[in-house]
Specification:
CATH class of the largest domain: Alpha Beta
Number of domains: 2
Structural class: alpha/beta
CATH superfamily of the largest domain: Glycogen Phosphorylase B
Helix content: 25-40%
Length: about 375
């Protein structure tokens, strides 16, 4: 089977991380092409962030579309020709905005090629545009395109809104969290942030963007520390040098550190005591899976995905709402039972259903259905 994976780019992000992991797993038994749309020669360090981790057997193709250049028939035709040229059995689209660029390819190719799209975020966010409504009610209704939801909550939203769609729930997966050659170096780095041997390390991994609600996270953690807790928060992610990022940095007090981007996330997860997610909405965050596969408990806002995979009070704590007050309560509850949460998380990580191997098998089954 030949599978064409299509996404915007390989910039730091959960969906991009997933596309690379899935491609690497699928290429073990299938021919896989990973095609990115946005020009990866502009800021290559950022736009090719995950390219280093792509299996050499996966064919990588970049279309060089200029970011922010706007839509044009020329661009749409270019994407269509590139999709057609691969003669794939399955075209798998990622990130909700990609369909805007692939609309000609979807319309012209869906009659002979299986078109699949994974909904990487909350189904209710970004999937009610005129284009999506037309797609769902036309080619979706006659099953010439199919969709995948990353969590049970999102799946319920999809089938309740469009019960006639050909869709499936396939939980996200992640490759094993294995220490890299830099593990000892990272351990020394993480230890350097500790004020005492008992200092607890809380980790947050996400680029700076409003939906991640990071100003609330930092403010809540500031207050959490004033309660006398010996803990620090390490924030890994891009774009904290923007105006929004600088505002968050200004709010941060002692005990909150911004590390920039890192490629060896596993090393940091394996050196953390807890993982923090503060998002306003999500699908099924890859970072939560990374934490759970590392045996690290999760402290999260009640976003979809987290509600499905984190066992509240067992492998993490879910705040009652998205406010600073409730998140501080979640932080307090977690630290008061951190040993118990960590023990449960470690015990469950090796039997986790959220591996990329299990995920890829389900995708192949869905492709073949």
């Amino acid at each position: 089977m030949k599978i064409l994976q299509v996404t915007f780019g390989l910039t730091p992000g959960g969906a991009e991380r997933f596309v690379v992991d899935l491609s690497n797993e699928l290429v073990k038994e299938h021919e896989v092409v990973l095609m990115t749309l946005i020009d990866d020669q502009v800021e290559p360090e950022k736009s090719q962030f995950y390219l280093f981790d792509l299996n050499e057997k996966v064919k990588y193709k970049n279309l060089g579309i200029k970011k922010g250049g706007g839509f044009s028939m020329k661009v749409l035709w270019k994407v269509y020709k590139a999709m057609k040229q691969e003669k794939a059995d399955v075209i798998h689209l990622h990130v909700h905005g990609v369909v805007n660029f692939c609309v000609l390819g979807i319309v012209f190719l869906c009659w002979k090629t299986k078109i699949v799209q994974t909904i990487h975020t909350d189904f209710k966010v970004g999937h009610s545009t005129p284009l999506y409504k037309v797609m769902f009610r036309t080619i979706g209704r006659i099953h010439k395109m199919r969709w995948v939801a990353l969590s049970q909550s999102n799946y319920k939203d999809m089938v309740s809104t469009y019960p006639y769609l050909l869709c499936s729930r396939i939980d996200n997966g992640r490759a094993p969290m294995i220490p890299t050659a830099s593990f000892s170096e990272v351990k020394n780095e993480v230890d350097s942030y500790k004020k005492t041997e008992e200092t607890k390390i809380y980790l947050h991994v996400a680029r700076c963007v409003a939906v991640k609600n990071q100003k609330m996270l930092v403010t809540a953690f500031n207050y959490f520390r004033t309660l006398g807790h010996d803990a620090v928060l390490l924030i890994i992610g891009a774009d904290f040098d923007t105006d929004a990022g600088e505002q968050i940095k200004e709010v941060a007090k002692d005990g909150v550190f911004f590390l920039g981007t890192r490629k060896n996330i596993a090393d940091y997860m394996l050196n953390a005591d807890a993982f923090c997610l503060s998002s306003l909405y999500e699908g099924l965050p890859i970072t939560i899976l990374e934490a759970l596969l590392s045996g690290v408990p999760v402290i999260s806002t009640p976003v979809k995905g987290a509600l499905d995979v984190v066992k509240d009070g067992e492998t993490g704590i879910i705040s009652k709402d998205f406010t600073e007050e409730e998140y501080v309560k979640a932080l307090n509850k977690a630290i008061n039972s951190l040993d118990y949460l960590k023990a449960n998380s470690i015990a469950e990580k090796d039997s986790s259903p959220y591996t990329i191997q299990a995920c890829a098998k389900k995708y192949v089954s869905f492709y073949n259905s």
